[in-house]
Amino acid sequence: MAWSPNNSPMNLMQIMAQEKVQERAKNRTLNLRVRTIRHETPDIASFELVDPDGRDLPPFTAGAHIDVRISDKIQRQYSLCNDPAERHRYEIAVLKEPNGRGGSVAMHALAEGQTLTVSEPVNRFPLAGREARFHLLLAGGIGVTPMMAMIAELEANKRPWHMHYCTRSRDRSAFIERLEPHIAAGKVELHHDGGDPAKGLDIARALSQFEIGTHLYFCGPPGFMSAAKASVGAWPPFNVHCEYFEAPDDRPPAESGPFQIKIKSSGQVFDVPVGKTIVAVLRENGFDIETDCEDGYCGTCITRYVEGDPEHRDTVLSEGERKSYVMVCCARSRSPMLVLDP
């Protein structure tokens, strides 16, 4: 999943605590061999990654992803889509996007036997615990990848679930053979729209009612995510979990005018020009700022501000949290100066 995920809705302290733990895992790397490459559809390939010496890999839970260093200049995140009970391999799937940022094209150019450097698994899209009586999964296209691990874990634990799987056509539906038993059992519903979302799943209708104990998980392309996000008004936020593969397409324009940032503790003032992010300016001036997605959907670079009027472009912070915090990877400023307290 080239991805870009958003987390299930958590409050700020939960996000920050989780990030500290998962950052340590992300910084531990593994050198893994590409054992097999399988073409799931004409434009989706799955990659089986194993330890070259046959050793067990660090465990993971459903919803986890790994950072994959494809080259010195390209690093991407992909969901693990195999059974979390497996310790001998990781499996990821990648949609080839010729007009993307280059990561998926580079992945599709790999050959079996090559070695990749990856992080240990990190999970920002976990299944709910015992409080969940039922799990409802909505997968749009390549968004099915984290759902595959979820299904395996739910089946192993005998937890009730149902998935709506939305794709253009059957031949463009990844993992269809693996899902066949669940389709036959009525646990997976396929929705093929032929390229016209109006002919696919009626997401608003599917999510119009909330039943106590049900937890919702959705993942897919921007339009799919926007439709799902707009349809959960009846759902308690704690019961809704999502992961973005890329930044939502309804964010403000990518650029705005120049502004300044000031560091409260030192009084330093730096210019943030058009075309450069706050985090880039901070790094240029000696600040060590951790980032992951650099598009406002992972929550890694949460930073407090004390003055100014930020233009928020993330998908993580609640309206209340935006009164005190920004994501410095993507935020701009409407005011001439934004005072940060990193």
Percent strand equals: 25-35%
Cα distance, first to last residue? 31 Å
Structural class by helix and strand composition: alpha/beta
CATH architecture of the largest domain: Beta Barrel
Question: What is the number of independent domains?
Answer: 3
Biggest sheet, open or closed, and with what strands and sense? 7 strands, antiparallel
The CATH topology name of the largest domain reads Elongation Factor Tu (Ef-tu), domain 3
Overall pLDDT metric: 88
Short structural summary:
With 342 residues, this protein is an alpha/beta fold. The chain is built from 7 helices and 19 strands.
Describe the SSE topology:
Blueprint: H1 12-27, E1 29-41, E2 44-50, E3 64-69, E4 75-79, E5 90-95, H2 103-108, E6 115-119, E7 122-123, E8 134-140, H3 144-156, E9 161-167, H4 176-184, E10 188-192, H5 203-206, E11 214-220, H6 222-229, E12 240-244, E13 259-263, E14 269-272, H7 278-284, E15 302-307, E16 310-311, E17 325-327, E18 332-333, E19 337-340
Parallel strand pairs: 8-9, 8-11, 9-10, 11-12, 13-19
Antiparallel strand pairs: 1-2, 1-6, 2-5, 3-4, 3-6, 3-7, 13-14, 15-17, 15-19, 16-18
Question: What descriptors fit this protein?
Answer:
single chain, Ubiquitin-like (UB roll), seven-stranded antiparallel beta sheet, Elongation Factor Tu (Ef-tu), domain 3, 3 domains, globular, 342 residues, five-stranded parallel beta sheet, 30% strand, 7 helices, alpha/beta, disordered N terminus, Rossmann fold
